[in-house]
Write a structure and sequence with these properties.
InterPro entries: DUF4136 (IPR025411). The protein has about 180 residues and is α/β, with parallel strands linked by helices. It has a single domain, classed as Double Stranded RNA Binding Domain (2-Layer Sandwich). Helix content is about 30%, strand content about 30%. It is built from four helices and six strands; from the N terminus they run αββααββββα. It has a six-stranded mixed beta sheet with strand order 1-6-5-4-2-3. A hairpin with a 4-residue loop joins strand 5 and strand 6. Helix 3 packs across helix 4.
Length: about 180
Amino acid sequence: MKFLRFTPLLLVLAVFLTSCSSVRVASDYDREADFNEYGTYAFFKPGIDKAEISDLDKKRILRAIETEMGKKGFTKSENPDLLVSIFTKTNENINIYNNNVYPFWGYGWGWNPWYWGSGFNTVSSTSEGTLYIDLIDSEDKELVWQGMGTAALAREVNKKQERINEIVAKIMEKYPPGFEK
């Protein structure tokens, strides 16, 4: 019986812990491409320049991609097999928690526009970003693989690189296709 009492608490705790740092990822690829042929890469500057983020964040993302490509055995080259491009999107999510337990607190009976019940109604916002990493065959100039990751973004400057590294690593786990962890 004790187990049944603690199960809901453990379930809520598990959901909370996994939702805080989760990165949702997906990938797609050209089924005709032979991914064993690729060993070198370079960044596709025209594509990267179109990404609507700060130059500092672009550098952070490119550093993280370089690290992950190196882990996969790729080397940077002037004559690459693959071109790497990125694309980003951001969304601002606004969460409103209305915790009015009793009708005379907050917006129930006795509503008062100059009184906001302490701790009973909260509004928070989070920035969520989606990063697309495109791998383009340099000879054919065709997209052969695309990875996408969506996650909450870090607001503190000293945590941005760490968060970007985590997002890029999760995306690159999907490359090459069929060899995911």
